[in-house]
Design a protein that fits this description.
Layout lengths: L1 H18 L5 H21 L7 H20 L5 H9 L7 H23 L9 H27 L1 H7 L7 H29 L2
Length: about 200
């Protein structure tokens, strides 16, 4: 439980930092709301289903990515402005980190749920189904970005964050797909070891 409390402390400290004098208040709200909804869901389901500490750690990292994007807006994260200048990139690519995590972290959440709840008996399509679900989540998020931008006009443009890149939506979904695949390749054994300890 100590690890859980430590992660919660980091979550709330980073959340408070994120909402303190953000670049754009409305964009900050839009970017951090998934993390807040996530923590509420995890809190209400904690007694019924407790994830491994490794999965909680990945969720925390994803929340921090959201909080940083919310504080600065994804198009203006200072470190990635610096990277853009050093490597002569045409845009601030912090949003690609966010979309990579948007694939990787849900993949590990879904994987743990599938294993522990015995959702899929035939393991032949196990990873394919997980990656497909992550791609669906990414596509749904792109729809939300689009709807918010249409509904709010200029207020939603920072949330949409295309930075003039015509293929931004497609590349966001690609990065989420890559994130899901990388997560399954790199972290499945680590997650399996923790699941066995439950």
């Amino acid at each position: 439980m100590k690890n859980i409390y430590s992660m919660l402390a980091v979550f709330f400290v980073t959340l408070i930092w994120s909402i303190t004098n953000p670049k754009e208040g409305f964009t900050c709200f839009l970017e951090i709301i998934p993390a807040i909804i996530g923590i509420l869901v995890l809190t209400f389901t904690f007694k019924k289903f407790r994830f491994t500490n490794f999965t909680y750690l990945l969720i925390l990292v994803h929340c921090i990515i959201l909080f940083v994007g919310g504080h600065y807006t994804y198009a203006e994260v200072p470190l990635f402005d610096y990277i853009r200048e050093v490597f002569h990139q045409s845009r601030n690519n912090y949003d690609k980190v966010g979309h990579f995590a948007q694939g990787l972290v849900p993949a590990m959440i879904i994987r743990e749920l599938f294993i522990r709840k015995k959702v899929i008996s035939n393991k032949s399509f196990f990873n394919f189904i997980i990656v497909s679900i992550c791609l669906s989540i990414s596509a749904a998020y792109e729809w939300i970005e689009w709807w918010v931008s249409l509904a709010t006009g200029d207020g939603g443009d920072a949330f949409l964050g295309t930075q003039g890149y015509v293929w931004d939506t497609q590349s966001d979904m690609l990065f989420a797909t890559i994130g899901a695949i990388v997560g399954l390749i790199l972290f499945s054994k680590i997650q399996d070891k923790q699941i066995l300890k439950i």
